[in-house]
Amino acid sequence: MSAAFNLGVLQLSMEPVRETVAMAKACEQAGFDAFWIAEAYPWWRKHSFEARSSTAILAVIAVETRRIQLGWGIISPYSRHPVQIAMEARVMQEVAADRFLLGLGASKIFMKEIGEQAGEKVGPATVMRESIEIIRGVLQGDRFEYQGQAFAANVPPLKPDAPTPRGIPPIYLAATGPVLQRMSGSMADGLLTASITTPAFVRYSRKNMEEGARRAERDPSNLILGSVIVGSISLDSRKGKAGAREQAAMYLANKVENIGSAADVLLECAGLSLKELRPVADAMERGGRSAAAKAVSDEVLRKVCPIAGTPEECIERIREYRQAGCTHIMLEIWGEDRVGQAKLFGEAVLPHVRP
Predict the structure, then answer these.
(1) How many structural domains is the chain composed of?
(2) Could you tell me the pTM of the whole model?
(3) Which of 351, 345, 342 is nearest to 22 (CA)?
(4) φ and ψ at 228, to 5 degrees?
(5) 296 lies in some domain
(6) b/e map of 34-55 (b: 16 or more CB within 10 Å)?
(7) From CA 170, how far away is CA 101, in angstroms rounded?
(8) Nearest partner of 323 among 208, 193, 200, 212, judged by Cα
(9) Are the beta carbons of 233 and 345 closer than 8 angstroms?
(10) CA-CA distance, 155 to 142, in Å (whole number)?
(11) pLDDT (tens digit, 9 = 90+) per residue, 196-224?
C-alpha cells in the first residue's frame, strides 16, 4: 500500500508560544493533516527572534488540539542525547498518543553553534544511525545497553505496571545529502527535506530514499517523503507572493551564512547560484527581513517554487510537488494574517488537492 498524501504546516519555534498554539489550532480547524515545529536556533536572535524549545511547545499544542498530527520537524541529537530524546518522546506519546511524529536531523547549524563539526569525532551518518537505534531501544521498554562510537546508553527495563505508553512513534530522518537520504530509506519511516525544496529536489531525494530502501530489502512505497515548502496565499496574487518572498529571503540568507556547501545540491536543483543569493544574505545582515525580501528578484522567487499566490496558483503548485513524489507537504506559511491564510487554504485549496 502506498503512503497517503498529506498536507501539513511547519512553523519555527522562534515566536511567542501563545501565537504558535493559536496557529496550530487554526490549522487543525482548517483541515490540515499535520502541524510540525522546527526548532529555531540562536542565529535567528540577530533578526529579532528567540530560539525556543520545540519539544516543549509541541507538548503544549498537543493539549490544545484533538485531531491534527503533531511532529518534531526536526530536533537534533547534537543538542540532546538520544536517551533524552526518547524521554521527551514519551511526553508526546502521553499527550498526543498516535498523533505524534518524530523528526530527527543532524542540523548543520546546531553542529556549528555548539562547536561540533562533522569529522571531529564521528560523522553525522554515525550519529544519526546510533540515535535512531537508541531512541527505538529505549522506547521499546526492555533493558537496553548500547555502546556506539558517538553515544552510549544503559537503561533498565520498564516494569509492566509502569503508568506510561509503550511503543515507538514513526521516526523520520531529515537529510539533504545522499548518504543520509539513503539511510532514511534503509532504517527510518521516511525522509524530510529542508526549506527551499523544489520539485526537482523532491525527485532527487526520492531516488536516494528508494535506493536505500531497496538495499535494505524494504518496500519504498510505504515510506513518507515530507518537504518543507515556503507558502503564502491571498485572493490577490501579488499579495499572496509577498509573504513567500520574505520567508524565502530568510532561508536563502540562512543557506549562505550557516549551511554553505551542504546546500549545494538543494540550490543546484533550484537553479540558484551563490552569486544570486549573496545580495539577499547581505541585505539580511544590513537591514533584516524586509530588506532581504526586497533583494529577492521575481526570478529568484520563481526558482524557489513556493506554494504561493492565489488559491488556484497554490493548487497547481501542490499538484506539481505531488507529481514529483512528495507525499507530505510541510507548508511554511508566512506573511500577513497567517491564521487567516490557514483558513483560506482550508476553504479554497485543501478540498481540491485531496486524494
Answers:
(1) 1
(2) 0.94
(3) 342
(4) -80, 120
(5) no
(6) bbbbbbbbebbeeeebebbbbb
(7) 6
(8) 200
(9) yes
(10) 8
(11) 899 999 999 999 999 999 999 999 999 99
Query: What is the four-CA torsion angle of 52, 57, 58, 64, rounded to 10 degrees?
Result: -160
For residue 347 the three cell numbers come to 476553504
C-alpha cell belonging to residue 205: 531525494
Range of the domain at 312: 6-233+308-353
β-sheet bridge partners, residue 191: 173, 225
Report the Cα–Cα distance between both ends of the chain, in Å, rounded.
14
Residue 331 pairs in a beta bridge with 9, 229
CATH number reported for the structural domain that contains residue 345 in this entry: 3.20.20.30
| Tens digits of residue pLDDT in 83-131 | 999 999 999 999 999 999 999 998 766 665 555 544 457 889 999 999 9
Q: In 3D, which of 192, 196, 175, 195 has the Cα closest to residue 303? A: 196
